[in-house]
Structures are given as structure tokens and as C-alpha cells.
Amino acid sequence: MFTVDHLSNRISPVKTQKFSELGFTERKHLQEWLAYQPDALGEELLIIQKEFDGFDDTRERLDLLALDKDGNLVIIENKLDDSGRDVVWQALKYASYCASLTKGQIVDIYQQYLHKYPPVKRHGDQSADVVLNAASRICDFLNAPDLDEVKLNLGNSQRLMLVAANFRKEVTSTALWLLGQGISIQCFKVTPYSLEERLLINIDQIIPTLEAKELMISINAKEAEEKSTEVVLKNAQQKRLAYWEQLLEVFQQSDCKLYDNISPGKDHWLSAGSGLSACPFRLIFSQKELRVELGLDRADQADNKFLFDYLFSHQSDIEQAFGASLEWLRLDDKKTSRIQFGYQVDGFNTDTWTQSVSWHLEHMSKLEQAIRAPLQKAAEALRQKHNGTTNV
């Protein structure tokens, strides 16, 4: 930190002090400063207790206990000139103790604090009386209409704030590792300066830096999105597997023998041979649609288009045999083509699965009967085109 001399256009360093040299103590001074001005730590915090010792079977006490704007408990540990090597372990213990605190216990803890340290009006406060009701003050802080709508200390949401003039490497290394494991921990460096007769205090967040914190928020959001996607995908796969198992039991008892030797899977499709290589009959089961289709998926694009065109030339006869209009997708910009018939449905609603399985059975049976013979003729025409080429 420097002062600026406008006349000489020069800067001069401000003398750095040590708390011990100034006669300040951790409990009487640093703790009191933060209890009265918690936003010095970079955000709005509600101090609900200091020197909290309400832990079963231990006499340990944490320096300051606070709530943040999301209703998370914040454990604030203060040290003076040296953080000490055990401060992270100490804070982690307190966080583990606090993890079990219920909403009612937190309100009681704050109520005790208000009775012991009744807040005083600050300069400029025009309110008539200082409210000493803990529940009301918490609701006001969280902008909640009623305590019943307030969520406090959910899961493992506890946060750690370490405040000291200097941090040992073993502390910063551990803090950085904990950040990587998803633990919310911050380190604040407090530096006293003397300027003539005045004492200045500078508080810097060194872990994570503000730039790194913004990056970590982005990374955490991305990881949360990826985890959410994984959960959705896993649930969908489980649904599809269960549906195919139910469907195959019904198919095996029917006259449609396409799927007699097919096993259920987790994909949204289930394929069976049509008698022509790489031209499967497919059942489609998605969250929004049921479908039956014939896929033309041969390695040669020209073969797929030839087969499609041959079948399309018999569209009227095929659709008459099927009993409805089909969707003919030549897909000129792709290698494959397909012929399909679909039905919009709430596929993942298990209450409708019996009807969905019946729909699949009925329309796959119709599609096979309507298209198998024309497909065989299309295959023969393709053979003739290839002048007797085999493996068609």
C-alpha cells in the first residue's frame, strides 16, 4: 500500500505493522471487528453467534458462526499474525459439528446471541426499535415471509472462512485441495498499516482469488449440468430397459416372431432382421414418441436410395396393406433412408405401457406383413442391377 504525493508526483510505502506489535488480540479485536462488520469479508453475512461452544461432548468453540444469503452456515476462524498449521483441521471439525444443526437449533443459537449481545442502532438507522426476535431477523435477512419457508443448513452446505495476517503453506495447500473436492473454503489475509496517527486495515481474499472464484463458479455450474445430464440419461436408460423387457414378453407370445431372439437393451431402439442385410425392422421408444420403421442402412448410399425408390414406387399397395399412410424419408443428404409410422405419447409414463406395447405389436406386425414381400422384390432388383453380386 502506498500514499501519493500530488506535489512531487511520487508514491511512498505505508508502513506494514504486526497485530502483536500493536497490542491487538484475536478475540477482543479481530473477532469484534468482523462481528460488527461482517461484510468486510466480501458479502452480506448475519452473525448468529461468537465463541460458539454448543457442541456435545467437547469444549471446543469456534470464533464466529454466521448465515449467508442462501441459508448456509458459515464458520469463521480468526488468527492474528500466523494462521497456525492446524487451522484448517480445526475449521473442518467445527463444520462437521455444525452439519447436524437443525433450523430450530440455529434459531435458538441466534436468539441466545441476541440476548447476550443485543444489537444497537447504527448511525442513520431510522427504525423505531431494534428487533430481538431471532426468527424475524433471519426471515428479514433472507427476504422470506415466514420461517416455515426458510431453508437453513441443508446437507453439506457448510462454508469455511479463515482470517489471518499470514497463512502457512501447509494451510494454503490444504485449502486449495479442499476447493478441488467441492468444499467451500476461503482464506482472507488481514494486513494492518500505520499512516501517521491512523491505523488502516486491509482485507484481501487470497483463496480463491476473485478471478479464480468466478472461474470455479463456471466450472461448478458445468459439472452440475453434466451430473444432471448423467442422472437424466441413467433414468431414461433404466426406463427403456424396463419397457423392452415388458414388450419382449408380449411379442414372444404373439404371432410376430421378429424379436424372438432379441435381448432387451438400454437404447431407444430395438432392431430385428428383415431378411435383407442392414435393412432392419426397428421399434422406437422415446419419451415423446412410439414408432415402427424399416431402416435402409446399407454401406452403399446408392443401394439404399435404389431400395427406397423401388419401395416408394409401390407406395399405394404398401400403405393399403398397412392400413395407414406411412412417412417416407429418402434423406437425400444422408447415406441411409427409412420408412416409418409414429405415434405421439408420454412414453415414460409406466401406466400407459400396456397400451404402448400393444400399439408396437399391432403396427410392427402390420409393417412386416405390408413390406416384407415388396422388400424381397426390391432386393432381387438390386441383385440384377449388380449383375449377380452376392451378399445382398
UniProtKB/TrEMBL annotation:
GO terms for molecular function: nucleic acid binding. Pfam families: DUF4268. Residues 240-372 form the DUF4268 domain. InterPro entries: DUF4268, tRNA_endonuc-like_dom_sf. It comes from the Bacteria. This is DUF4268 domain-containing protein. It comes from Oceanospirillum sediminis.
